[in-house]
Amino acid sequence: MHLFHLFDENLLGRANAPALEWQGQTYTFGEIEAASNQIAGWLAAQGFVAGDRLCVQLPNSLFVVQLFLACLKLGVIYIPINVLYRDREVGHILQDAAPRLFLHAGEALPSASGYPSSRPNLGVLAGSTVAALIYTSGTTGPAKGAMLTHDNFAFNAMALRSIWNLNSEDRLLLALPLFHVHGLGNGILTWLVAGYRLRLLERFEAKLTEQEFLSFRPTVFFGVPTMYVRMLDWAAVPPARLFVSGSAPLAEHTHAAFREKFGAPILERYGMTEALMIASNPLHGERRAGTVGLALPGVKVEVRPPEQEVFVQGPNVCAGYWGRPGPFLEDGWFRTGDIGALSEDGYLTLNGRKSDLIISSGFNIYPREIEEYLLEQPEIQEAAVIGVPDAAKGEVPVACLVAASGAKIDAETILGRCRESLASFKVPRRVIWLDRLPRNALGKIQKHLLAGEIGPQ
Length: 457
Ligand code: MLC
Ligand code: AMP
Fold this sequence. Notes:
Blueprint: H1 4-11, E1 18-22, E2 25-28, H2 29-45, E3 53-57, H3 62-74, E4 77-80, H4 87-97, E5 101-104, E6 130-137, E7 143-149, H5 150-163, E8 171-174, H6 181-194, E9 197-200, H7 206-216, E10 220-223, H8 225-231, E11 242-245, H9 252-262, E12 267-272, E13 276-280, E14 294-295, E15 300-304, E16 309-313, E17 334-342, E18 348-353, E19 358-360, E20 363-365, H10 367-375, E21 380-390, E22 394-403, H11 411-421, E23 430-433, H12 450-454
Parallel strand pairs: 1-9, 3-4, 3-5, 8-9, 8-10, 10-11, 11-12, 22-23
Antiparallel strand pairs: 1-2, 6-7, 12-13, 13-14, 15-16, 16-17, 17-18, 19-20, 21-22
């Protein structure tokens, strides 16, 4: 089944219904449909055919939504790139994905209004057709493009519509970036399937978003924990029926404070780029703080000894990584790299990760990527990056460095270089200079000992 079997109930069947609010304008599903057809015409005129890739590094906008739909219609593989990525990070994705075109803020965007607003013949679409590549940095080595198919997105949207009762009467305020699956898969895809009214923001900015909340009065809100931490500073939050948190651990004290102040029990769920949504606390039923709830209907979750690693199986799991053939699943199961525990009644608790992944404000940071950059600096002999707790962001990266003998270098110079080459959220918040890094008998850096070197913020 391809996605338009689901979308067309709204794109065509409810063409006059208000669909998306963007910068004060409201667009119907029919207007979204027509504009995406024109962009599809423009893409075809650039030579795009099914299977071609399009890389897009743009902030949230109406155009990005319409462009994504246009790609889906032609079977063009949509590849969103984090707007914070610098040349080094973007270059890797462009080399890996070999797109026909790279659209980014530095260039004039296409004017597609000269193309027909009628729908082009849909490409030869099937459930297995790859809809998007979402790059997620591997714990080992550079980022890999998770191949998310029409079936993956369709299953995710139908599952969320069902377990969260998302419907055409809902109003979703979407402040998440559309270059990650939280904003794209749970926000945009589910909106097109459930047909609710969506107000899209370019990004979450505490004061501005508070005003949007008050004026739009959403019934549903999806956020990462950092957003809920920031919302605790708001004077009021209009009563929405559902606040969902994910992408990073939601601290129990944040859950409690939000409930105390705004009377709303945040619903926590668990997802991954490679597997979209995996588990969720129930809409009706016990929302067990500190857990990520129960496996979605149709998804299987196991926690396997000896590492208590979380394994996932289901139609939500992506088709593999772009350009990397070979075993993606282990006896049909996807290894998440997360450590967890399953209660007798099926509630999943996440207790950390096998890798030294750092999640800061919901963005993934792989220390190896920063360490490799730091070790390219001639003045640095050794580098280790670890996550340090942060009240708002969850964790922030800190670099422990050993200077090359005789090198004259200061932290600000190093951090200045990082700011030019790495996305801002990856730039270490502090530099700790050490004579040497703690290593075990095998010579492996003992990162767990470094926290003690860092001391309080
Ligand atoms: C943050 N920045 C942005 C941005 N979000 N710039 C442009 N567009 C955006 N959407 C900038 C900030 O200005 C800051 O720049 C830097 O990035 C770091 O931001 P921050 O430290 O995080 O603070 P803040 O600006 O307050 O942003 C907080 C935030 C943002 C929560 C609004 O971090 C955010 O939107 N996080 C969501 C990430 C996400 O969608 N994760 C889902 C992954 S998918 P500077 O220059 O001042 O440093 C996944 C699967 C699943 O995990 O389960 O969902
Ligand atoms: P990403 O690779 O960006 O999709 O991030 C996926 C990772 O985010 C998962 O493997 C988890 O480590 C983490 N994650 C997602 N949701 C939660 C959650 N509710 N609680 C804790 N960690 C989470």
